[in-house]
Amino acid sequence: MNTTHATQVHQGTTLRVGEWFLAIFGGIAAFLGGFVLLASDTSTVSIGLGGDWSWTVAELGDGWGYGLLAGGVVALVAAWALLRYDKREGYPHETSPTGTFIGHATAFVLVNALLWAQDLALGDGLNYAYWVTIAWGVGLLAHAYATFAQRSHSPPTG
């Protein structure tokens, strides 16, 4: 079974969708982090979707600003490195199913560790990190099943 990265090949060029998404996400996060840090404590500027889903900048702690800024900068640097140092020659790499699962599990552990640390550091107890862990954990279990159940049920070759 061939698995490929989330790239699309169109007329000889490779569109690196994941890398550009990471760059855009990082830029937005860095901008919002800087905005939260630079806004005054008495600012009445709102961030959010409106109603109960919006907050004034004064209500957000500096931890949110530093977290968004640092996360955004890390995402921008990672996207830049992926775009700059990618050695693909116009086609997606073929990787083993085990290799993609290991990458998925590594990302799961790192991202969830940061989310849990941030959630606990805010001092309000657990607010949201477990929802991400549960949903992503279900996806990771499905990925593990697809990776390892396939191997155990496939007929031997040779």
Plain-language structure description:
This protein folds into two domains: 1-93; 96-158. The strands form three sheets. Strands 1-6 form a two-stranded antiparallel sheet. Strands 2-3 form a two-stranded antiparallel ribbon. The chain contains four helices and six strands. The protein has 158 residues and is mainly alpha-helical. The chain is globular.
According to DSSP, the number of beta strands is: 6
Largest sheet: 2 strands, antiparallel
Strand content: 5-15%
The percent range for helix content is 55-70%
Distance between the termini: 17 Å
Helix and strand topology:
Layout: E1 3-4, E2 8-10, E3 13-15, H1 17-38, E4 46-48, E5 54-56, H2 62-85, E6 94-95, H3 97-121, H4 129-153
Antiparallel strand pairs: 1-6, 2-3, 4-5
Helix pairs in contact: 1-2, 3-4
What features would you highlight for this structure?
two-stranded antiparallel ribbon; disordered N terminus; 158 residues; single chain; globular; mainly alpha
Summarize the structure.
The protein has 158 residues and is mainly α. 61% of the residues lie in helices and 10% in strands. It has a two-stranded antiparallel sheet.
